[in-house]
Amino acid sequence: QKEVEQDPGPLSVPEGAIVSLNCTYSNSAFQYFMWYRQYSRKGPELLMYTYSSGNKEDGRFTAQVDKSSKYISLFIRDSQPSDSATYLCAMNYGGSQGNLIFGKGTKLSVKP
Amino acid sequence: GAGVSQSPRYKVAKRGQDVALRCDPISGHVSLFWYQQALGQGPEFLTYFQNEAQLDKSGLPSDRFFAERPEGSVSTLKIQRTQQEDSAVYLCASSLPQGGYTFGSGTRLTVV
Hints:
By secondary structure, chain A is mainly β. Helices cover 0% and strands 54% of the residues of chain A. Chain A is globular. Chain B has strands at residues 5-7, 10-13, 19-24, 31-37, 44-50, 53-56, 65-68, 75-79, 88-95, 102-103, 107-111. In chain B, strands 2, 4, 5, 6, 9, 10 and 11 form a 7-stranded mixed beta sheet that branches. Classes of the chains: A mainly beta, B mainly beta. Chains A and B meet through strand 5 and strand 10 of A and strand 4, strand 5, strand 9 and strand 10 of B.
């Protein structure tokens, strides 16, 4: 079993839909949780960065962390075709001081 | 610079050839990471530098892989005697002590 599990999809939704992306993890020592968006042939781009449990909102994006269930989520409201990309969850023990453990990525397609 | 710069963007190597991949991090970023991303997978950690010190190289898959950052700025990942399984995108990321990582666009290595 990998340390971080993420359904690779693909996930296809109509424009304007609410998208829910999720990851589970096995290591309870993880403290920092991130979501990255990766367009084709580009590097991952940081979307959300959270520490420990709770919610964080930034525009149309909301990140949730439930450490008791070892489960993190990213919600995208009013999805747009430009949101079509692969979304990667990532986590580690030490924030910027240590390597990230990534999920496999979920490929999202938002249809106009 | 404005972002993390990697060169070359694409590299085709014949099996057995040595290659060198370059990463130019964001100016002032202390931490630098190398990741390997196979097709359809999330990035996998290779190695981590803090300034010129290589603090973690546990992810390097074999002794054919070598990384350096001699002056605490530009880093080079070298792969000796390349093999087909080395074909992947090699991503470099840099970060400040607080905050997430910024990735470059990667070098796509194809070993033929």
